[in-house]
Write a structure and sequence with these properties.
3 helices; elongated; Jelly Rolls; alpha+beta
Length: about 190
């Protein structure tokens, strides 16, 4: 382990935070290519409560997304406090407007700026207000997303990526810190 990595690890352990990543993918990876006749929910069991393990960074990614026709259309993406686990479709008959309006926090109202480009990703990074809502919604360990495409948005999969701050028990921090100090002391003693 080089000196910089040792110092970084020690600082993280002494501060009580260790970063961990998680990536969630819906059971139907492309959400049926976001057919415009439906609205969709994706309910996620995070596997942790955000009150105990806060999310410090998050992004929602649509891989290789494109609109099927060159026209002004919308893809509404809403962060929801709750949704049935897994993917659920709701018939909206290609109705205009956001099917999930008022049911959560609208993350984006997106229109494909370059329908001809079928290799672009739509990346939605969460800002601080959205992270605050995400952590409030995830207090019970579950969150949801609502998707309402007002056109057909083909894609090659959707991912929700999070970075959490895992706060270890105080005893673990102390033991880890003592261990790191001991390793540093042994290394300097060996060098002399």
């Amino acid at each position: 382990m080089n000196k910089r990595m040792l110092i970084l690890t020690t600082v993280l352990m002494l501060s009580g935070y260790v970063l961990a990543d998680a990536v969630f993918v819906p059971p139907v990876a492309d959400l049926y290519d976001l057919d415009h006749y439906y609205a969709y929910t994706w309910g996620i069991n995070l596997g942790f409560k955000t009150t105990e393990t806060p999310i410090v960074a998050a992004e929602l990614v649509f891989k290789d997304i494109y609109n099927w026709r060159v026209e002004e259309d919308h893809l509404y993406v809403t962060l929801m406090n709750t949704a049935p686990l897994g993917v659920k479709r709701y018939w909206d008959g290609q109705g205009g407007g956001d099917y999930f309006a008022g049911q959560g926090l609208l993350l984006i109202d997106w229109n494909d700026p370059a329908e001809w480009d079928k290799t672009k990703d739509l990346v939605i990074p969460f800002n601080s207000a959205q992270l605050t809502a995400l952590n409030a919604y995830g207090a019970d360990g579950r969150i949801g997303f609502g998707f309402d495409p007002d056109c057909h948005y083909y894609n090659k999969g959707i991912e929700f990526k999070v970075v959490t701050a895992v706060v270890p028990a105080p005893g673990a921090v102390m033991l880890g810190s003592i261990g790191m100090l001991l390793v540093g002391w042994l290394r300097t003693r060996k060098a002399v």
